[in-house]
Amino acid sequence: MTGKAMAGRWRPMRADDLAAVAAISDAVHGMAYTERPAIYAERLALYPAGCHVFARDDGGAVEGYLISHPWRRDDPPTLDRPLGAIPADADGYYLHDLALLSSTRGAGAGRAALALVLRQAVAAGFDDITLTAVGGADGFWAAQGFVYADRDGASPYGPGTHLMRRTAAMW
């Protein structure tokens, strides 16, 4: 953290947040890893407990989002494809996406989001959290206790991406 104060809070995502979520995804991920707005809407419909936005305290502008849900731990969802349903045989918790605008980074919003995901995973009965690190974010995730879980060097979303995992226990 840079020492700047976190000027917002994580709250449950609502349908009227989806346009902001899509815009943040485009800004943070560029065209390489962004998803269609319908994908975010489906995640919210399928597992609202895992969908949150970071909203500013001074008027509520959305500056980040978090999407997570139960899933099969060794089979990450395909990028920009509908899930259809949360699998009945889900054996892990998947952190699908955490994106923060640059104005929000460095104040603890990312760490607060991870704490939220850890609590959700434990409450849902899962022992670990899996994610796919994109855009060089593996360093951030490694600093949060995630380790590389790529199978045979294969990365789920292509070159420069990494499947990572950590225990759901808090720090």
UniProtKB/TrEMBL annotation:
One of its GO terms (molecular function) is acyltransferase activity, transferring groups other than amino-acyl groups. Residues 8-169 form the N-acetyltransferase domain. It holds the Pfam family Acetyltransf_1. SUPFAM superfamilies: Acyl-CoA N-acyltransferases (Nat). Signal peptide: none annotated. PROSITE patterns: GNAT. This is GCN5-related N-acetyltransferase.
